[in-house]
Write a structure and sequence with these properties.
Blueprint (H helix, E strand, L loop, with lengths): L2 H4 L17 E6 L11 E7 L5 E5 L2 H27 L4 H4 L1 H12 L2 H9 L4 H20 L14 H15 L3 H8 L16 E6 L9 E7 L10 E7 L4 E6 L8 E3 L3 E6 L6 E5 L8 E4 L2 E4 L1 E11 L2 E11 L4 E5 L2 E7 L7 H9 L4 H8 L8 E6 L4 E4 L17 E2 L18 E3 L5 E4 L31 H12 L7 H8 L9 H10 L7 H11 L12 H7 L1 H8 L7 H15 L7 H4 E5 L2 E4 L10 E5 L5 E6 L3 E6 L5 E6 L18 H5 L4 E2 L3
Parallel strand pairs: 3-6, 10-19, 22-25
Antiparallel strand pairs: 1-2, 2-3, 4-5, 4-21, 5-26, 6-7, 7-8, 8-9, 9-17, 10-16, 11-12, 13-14, 14-15, 15-16, 17-18, 18-20, 22-23, 24-25, 26-27, 27-28
Helix pairs in contact: 2-6, 5-7, 6-7, 15-17
């Protein structure tokens, strides 16, 4: 996904992990300048031996202030860039790419949406985001030498809310139709991400576990660097907020993880939550027809301030809007876009409430707010309940229309105004099989086959995804292989770190196509073909074909996940053979030699591959290696014993210090991550 869309998801904030061991930051941390009436904050930040901050405050707002201060110490650069996007000034710091981000913010009217929505939030939530903003301002004031964009600070709680308004629609794929329309093309018919945004999540109930322990695995896939990489934290307040997990820069609380009673993992889903309408314009192009009448097409001029070398120049653009939503004009006409959650910012409220939920009933009631318009939730708790919730804000669409195509924009019959209730979403709760899982696949593969939901029970207008990832095929096969036996901790972890590929899926089709290639006159391709013929359909670093396969089918895996026509297998094989001959002088390159985890001075082998449950996605390096930059990242293993006590382990792909190379915590967890090991979370 383009950086200017990726950065939309979250306002970025930062944290520095230069403190070693259990060094404490005891204090009433400093208050803003005298002109700012916000009171001082009673907060204590203690970092463990991995640099992970444990933030204790008298109130929840005090904790939010501490989160901002801690996070800003680790990653101020991403913070400043994404806050600039919230303020419509990304172009002034990032150039042309940032200007595109500013344009998108204007198009979605994010600032006005955030301003209007701010009043709908509870006093407690407003206090939280204001305290978080105060922490950002204090850090910027105390470390002014790091500030690159003058006048960006101070920010306020409304800016944090605007960040949520910006990120939500892009998380479920608004970038795909928007990018197409801006490029003068029709939008794609399928919903979903524009790049490989994956995740895994697993829950096993105590009644199915060999030792009676209920387990939840959090395994969200995100870029390993940048404004949407995970950052770990543990929070406690005297108001009863206790939570261990991770967030993205800009969120004033953890976005996934657990409290004492319950927890959840998230995976990206791809329901059809976006509709595109073609408007009928009059000859002037300034009015559109709607229910037999002509309406004025709203328009306003905005100025994008774009950095060109040492200069920042103003570039004018016109923003259009109709009753449907934002409008893009191109050579094909004028197209309006309407998406789930349009105009709603209560997502910032819902996540906060979920953090403090005490039992399954309360958690489900909060989920029924439907303020988080998309993303699956895999749930588990101390009472042994588990569930997979295909969470999406489904528009209440009229039957009988092609909702995947471009719709006529001249009738109100197709402009939905409400949503289906949360209770009608696909979900599996406490199935007899005792396990649930999701790996960015259709919700009709959430547990054992005998306990599955039926696709026919849900209207086609909901636009529920049908795609099945290799990862889903693998966990189905692995759980099925256990039969009716109890599931041990080691067996569950073996499933999570599985590196296999299903022969009936895209990998099997690729393999068959490669073996059918005519390699006469190309002995090097024939040698590659012979290697691949003996491949055991795993990328576990043990087979002589693993490295070649991982490189040759990478694009195939990516296009299959994006549901695009897969590239020619011969071209991928030829490219892989040429690279291996150039850089290694051989084709049977061990996967661990080819695929690396690199961070600072750390350079380690990585096993696994694209769309494996041990997911590794990478980019080519100058020495011919592939360096991981996405896939498996921050992970948690949460375990509730039969008596309700919770134990947690986690691991980050790099470390707590997100963008501070001088910190000892810049890459100290990378060796753990590479060897699939864990560290204890001191909750």
């Amino acid at each position: 996904m383009p950086r200017w869309f990726t950065a939309l998801f979250w306002t970025s904030i930062a944290v520095a992990a230069v403190v070693v061991g259990l060094a404490s930051w005891d204090a009433i941390l400093s208050s803003p300048p005298a002109a700012d009436p916000v009171r001082p904050r009673a907060v204590k930040i203690t970092r463990d031996e991995w640099g992970v901050p444990h933030i204790n405050g008298k109130t929840d707002a005090d904790v939010a202030y501490g989160i901002a201060m801690a996070q800003a110490q680790d990653d101020f650069r991403n913070l400043e860039e994404t806050l600039a996007a919230v303020r419509g000034r990304a172009g002034a710091i990032l150039g042309e790419g940032g200007a595109k981000l500013d344009f998108a913010g204007h198009l979605l009217d994010a600032t006005e949406v955030g301003e209007k929505g701010y009043a709908t939030l509870s006093p407690a939530t407003r206090a939280l985001v204001e305290a978080y903003a105060q922490g950002l301002n204090d850090y910027a004031r105390q470390n002014s030498q790091e500030v690159r964009l003058q006048g960006l600070f101070p920010v306020n709680g409304r800016d944090i809310v605007v960040g949520f308004a910006l990120r939500s629609p892009f998380f479920f794929g608004l970038d795909r139709p928007l990018s197409a329309l801006i490029d003068g093309k029709l939008p794609p018919r399928d919903a979903g991400p524009a790049d490989e945004r994956g995740s895994n999540a697993f829950a096993v109930a105590g009644q199915r576990s060999a030792d009676g322990v209920t387990r939840l695995i959090v395994n969200s896939h995100q870029p390993w660097e940048g404004p949407v990489t995970w950052w770990e934290l543990v929070v406690h307040s005297d108001e009863g907020w206790d939570f261990a997990g991770a967030n993205f820069p800009g969120a004033p609380y953890p976005l996934l993880g657990h409290n004492k009673h319950l927890g959840w993992a998230n995976t990206v889903n791809r329901p059809d939550l976006i509709d595109v309408y073609k408007l009928v314009l009059d000859e002037s192009g300034d009015r559109y027809r709607y229910d037999g009448q002509w309406r004025d097409l709203e328009s306003r001029r905005v100025w994008l301030r774009v950095k060109f070398g040492p200069l920042v120049l103003p570039i004018p653009r016109t923003i259009y809007r109709s009753v449907h939503g934002p409008v893009i004009k191109n050579d094909l006409g004028a197209f309006a876009i309407r998406y789930a959650g349009i105009g709603d910012v209560r997502q910032v409220e819902q996540y906060y409430r979920l953090n403090k939920a005490r039992d399954f009933a309360e958690w489900q009631a909060i989920m029924a707010m439907q303020a988080i318009p998309g993303t699956n939730f895999v749930y588990a708790d101390a009472k042994g309940h588990i569930g997979m919730f295909y969470n999406a804000l489904f528009p209440a669409r009229a039957a009988g229309f092609d909702w995947k195509g471009v719709l006529p924009g001249d009738t109100s019959k197709l402009v939905w105004q409400s949503y289906l209730p949360f209770a009608g979403n696909p979900h599996v709760i406490d199935p007899p099989a005792g396990w649930v899982a999701n790996s960015n696949n259709t919700p009709f593969l959430s547990t054992a086959p005998a306990n599955q939901l039926k696709r026919s029970d849900f209207p086609v207008e909901m636009g529920i995804e049908t795609y099945v990832t290799n990862r889903a095929q693998r966990y189905q096969a692995r759980f099925a292989g256990l039969g009716n036996q109890q599931i041990s901790r080691d067996q569950l972890l073996s499933i999570k770190f599985d590196k296999g590929y299903d022969r009936t899926g895209w990998a099997g089709r690729w393999w068959t196509e490669v073996l059918a290639l005519d390699t006469k006159g190309r002995p090097d391709l024939g040698q590659a073909q012979d290697l691949i013929r003996r491949w055991d359909f795993t990328l576990d670093c043990n087979g002589p074909a693993d490295g070649l396969v991982a490189l040759a089918f990478a694009q195939h895996a990516r296009f299959a996940y994006l549901q695009k026509p897969v590239p020619n297998a011969r071209a991928g094989l030829e490219e892989a053979v040429a690279l291996f001959k150039t850089h290694f002088g051989r084709l049977d390159v061990p996967l661990g030699d080819f695929q690396r985890l690199r961070r600072g001075k750390v350079d380690l082998p990585m096993c696994g591959g694209p769309d494996a449950l041990r997911a590794v996605i990478g980019t080519p390096a100058d020495d011919g290696r592939r360096v991981g930059n996405n896939g498996d990242g921050y992970m948690m293993l949460i375990e509730w014993a039969a008596d309700g006590t919770v134990r947690t382990n986690s691991v980050h792909h790099f470390g707590a210090a997100a963008s501070r190379p001088q910190s000892p915590h810049y890459a100290d967890q990378a060796p753990l991550f590479a060897r699939e090991a864990w560290k204890e979370v001191k909750f």
